[in-house]
Design the sequence.
């Protein structure tokens, strides 16, 4: 009996990963793409996206769910890049300059303060906050740059004299981090420097979890009131988690855009959180629990699907649009599905532990308490 | 003095600021050669177009399901009904009520499934609703491409299949409600009597419903689930009913919107629609778990007034297109304000 139970547990735990793996494996042959092509795409896309997805980890540890407010960081990073282009600072120096200016401590602080006022509905609030700050971003970039804030390079301004162009050419920083240390492995090219940066971040996350602050975050994530009575400054810890996440997102967006090579000034950040959140969930993370392997598996699985679906749609249905819609459907669907799965399980665990508290049999209590703790319902 | 203070706290600062802003826009309009009568006509028209969407927020808020970010499901049901109505060639009164009638079964079915889902995820409704809505819109995008519609005005001419992104309903049921008893004064003022009557009638029905036994039970579930359970009300059943009503209203809402706008908009058009409705009811003074008819009417009027007046006045005053940004900041700012407010009734 316990065998079937643990199998069921395993299936619900990894349902998203398993379903996704099946869809992906089914879609690869019908796309007609070669394995070499897909592997090279994956290496590129791992370098491009992993940093952004890693930025989601800390808020999950702190029990704040998926940080949809990471878009704030992405926007800061973009402003950093605009300024780097404006001052014509190219190469890795340009990226460092952008990262320095785009460091989103203030944005992260705003996001943290707002989310502290919306405990229990952080995700939807973060999502709406990203929309709101998007308005402010447009106000600054489209109306104030070149009007209130001087812009030196007229090439990046709209012809009316103020506001940044809709598409920004990042020629001077294009793939400067990727090409800084490019390794050829047989037929594949590997951007070692980008992967090194990502590795450093992974080490940072692992180290951070062991610090006092990291432990506090886990405590807050587990139970806010218990953490509070143990003397952990709950609100402050939550704000720090969001600040770090937002700052990382700004760096992540810079890495993402230097790889893309140009930037849609007003749309580049629209789907940042969508892709990142979908990736980490596809990798088997939940709202409360996420690890570095979740991130890596998620990025690979999600992007294999993204690479193959337009082609598969073309070949199977004779319409590339179907593939395009399908991949968006899958992205949104995966997010919805894993949120549902998680919320449903949390409720079931909570109900189970309540059952235990009624104390019909003494043995049930510790088991139920353990289960409740693991699922950690609110 | 004291009552003024009380009034301010009741009404809330954001609403007062938006109201003053709107009044200022109306006052400023003539100076920038924006016609007041045309503007008022526009505001009324858009109020009618969006009224039902805002109304659709009420039942779910009352039943404690939060803001219905998944209104797109209802909109999709409405789109299915209206495309079927055009496909069957129903005209005029049959076209409009045919579209509503055909969409209701879908709306009830979607709402029922959606309600069952939301019952399983209490506490996380809003985020999940948003993504369920997004995913269904994307799923329907695929469906619009492959469903066997074949009305010549509906499908792409060169491919011979797949529905167009916008389908005209000229000659079907365009302006069916708008022109009913419409009052025309001068050349630029039209009072869309029929549409406003219809919206008013729906609001009245909702008001009545909230006072019936079921409606009261629903409110009880929203404001105090434990008390409701103790008095023998099935919370899940009430919540499901509220979701179904909300979805049906969403379906009827998009059809009212279409008859005034003149086109059926398919594909990704429903993606952003719930946000406007959410912003409107919150501007009207609703909170995440309390909403009334006054909130609906005030909210829809203020929000649509803002949407109509900012582009025309601000753009002609400043000679820029900044109003879109103003809209983004105001509507999303209001949503955040509501989400971060400590409400008296806590879950």
Sequence:
């Amino acid at each position: 009996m316990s065998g079937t139970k643990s199998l069921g547990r395993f299936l619900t735990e990894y349902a998203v990963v398993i379903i996704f793996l099946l869809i992906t494996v089914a879609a690869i042959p019908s796309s007609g793409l070669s394995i070499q092509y897909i592997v090279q795409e994956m290496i590129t896309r791992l370098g491009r996206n992993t940093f952004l997805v890693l930025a989601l980890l800390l808020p999950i540890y702190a029990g704040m769910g998926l940080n949809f407010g990471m878009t704030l960081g992405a926007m800061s990073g973009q402003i950093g890049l605009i300024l780097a282009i404006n001052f014509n600072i190219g190469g890795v120096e340009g990226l460092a300059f952008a990262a320095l200016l785009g460091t989103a401590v203030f944005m992260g602080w705003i996001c943290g303060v707002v989310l502290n006022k919306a405990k229990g509905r952080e995700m939807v609030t973060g999502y709406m906050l990203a929309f709101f700050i998007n308005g402010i971003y447009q106000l600054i970039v489209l109306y104030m740059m070149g009007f209130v804030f001087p812009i030196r390079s007229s090439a990046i301004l709209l012809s009316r004299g103020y506001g940044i162009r809709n598409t920004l050419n990042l020629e001077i920083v294009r793939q400067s981090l990727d090409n800084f240390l490019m390794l050829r492995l047989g037929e594949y090219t590997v951007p070692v420097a980008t992967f090194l940066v990502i590795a450093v971040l992974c080490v940072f996350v692992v180290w951070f979890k062991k610090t006092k602050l990291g432990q506090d975050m886990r405590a807050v994530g587990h139970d806010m009131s218990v953490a509070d009575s143990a003397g952990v400054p709950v609100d402050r810890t939550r704000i720090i988690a969001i600040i770090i996440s937002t700052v990382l997102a700004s760096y992540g967006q810079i890495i993402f855009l230097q790889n893309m090579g140009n930037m849609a000034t007003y749309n580049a950040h629209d789907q940042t959180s969508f892709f990142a959140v979908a990736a980490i969930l596809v990798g088997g993370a939940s709202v409360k629990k996420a690890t570095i392997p979740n991130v890596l598996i998620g990025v690979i699985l999600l992007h294999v699907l993204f690479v193959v679906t337009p082609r598969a749609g073309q070949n199977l249905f004779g319409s590339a649009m179907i593939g395009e819609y399908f991949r968006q459907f899958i992205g949104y669907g995966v997010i919805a599905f894993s949120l549902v799965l998680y919320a449903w399980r949390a409720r079931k665990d909570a109900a189970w532990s309540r059952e235990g508290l009624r104390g019909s049999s003494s043995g049930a209590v510790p088991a139920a308490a353990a289960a409740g703790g693991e699922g950690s319902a609110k | 003095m004291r009552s003024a203070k009380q009034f301010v706290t009741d009404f809330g600062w954001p609403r007062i600021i938006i109201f003053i802003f709107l009044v200022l826009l109306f006052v400023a309009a003539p100076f920038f050669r924006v016609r007041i009568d045309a503007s008022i006509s526009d505001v009324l028209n858009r109020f009618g177009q969006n009224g039902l969407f805002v109304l659709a927020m009420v039942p779910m808020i009352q039943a404690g399901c939060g803001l219905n970010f998944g209104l797109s499901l209802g909109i999709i049901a409405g789109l299915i009904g209206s495309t079927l109505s055009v496909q069957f060639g129903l005209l005029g009164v049959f076209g409009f009520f045919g579209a509503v009638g055909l969409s209701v079964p879908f709306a009830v079915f979607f709402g029922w499934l959606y309600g069952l889902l939301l019952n399983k995820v209490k506490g996380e409704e809003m985020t999940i609703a948003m993504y369920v809505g997004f995913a269904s819109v994307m799923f329907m995008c695929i469906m619009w491409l492959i469903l066997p519609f074949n009305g010549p005005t509906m499908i792409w001419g060169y491919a011979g299949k797949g529905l167009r992104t916008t389908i005209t309903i000229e000659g079907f049921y365009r302006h069916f409600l708008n022109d009913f008893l419409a009052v025309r004064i001068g050349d630029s003022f039209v009072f869309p009597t029929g549409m406003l009557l219809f919206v008013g009638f729906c609001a009245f029905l909702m008001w009545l419903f909230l006072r019936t036994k079921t409606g009261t039970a629903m409110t009880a579930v929203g404001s105090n689930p434990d008390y409701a359970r103790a008095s023998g009300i099935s919370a899940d059943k009430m919540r499901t009913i509220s979701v179904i009503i909300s979805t049906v209203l969403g379906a009827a809402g998009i059809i009212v919107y279409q008859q005034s706008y003149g086109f059926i908009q398919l594909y990704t058009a429903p993606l952003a629609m719930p946000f406007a409705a959410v912003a409107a009811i919150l501007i009207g003074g609703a909170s995440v778990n309390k909403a009334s008819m006054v909130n609906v009417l005030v909210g829809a009027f203020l929000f649509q007034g803002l949407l109509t007046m900012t582009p025309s006045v601000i753009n002609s005053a400043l000679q820029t297109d900044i109003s879109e940004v103003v809209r983004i900041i105001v509507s999303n700012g209001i949503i955040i304000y509501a989400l971060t407010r400590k409400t008296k009734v806590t879950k």
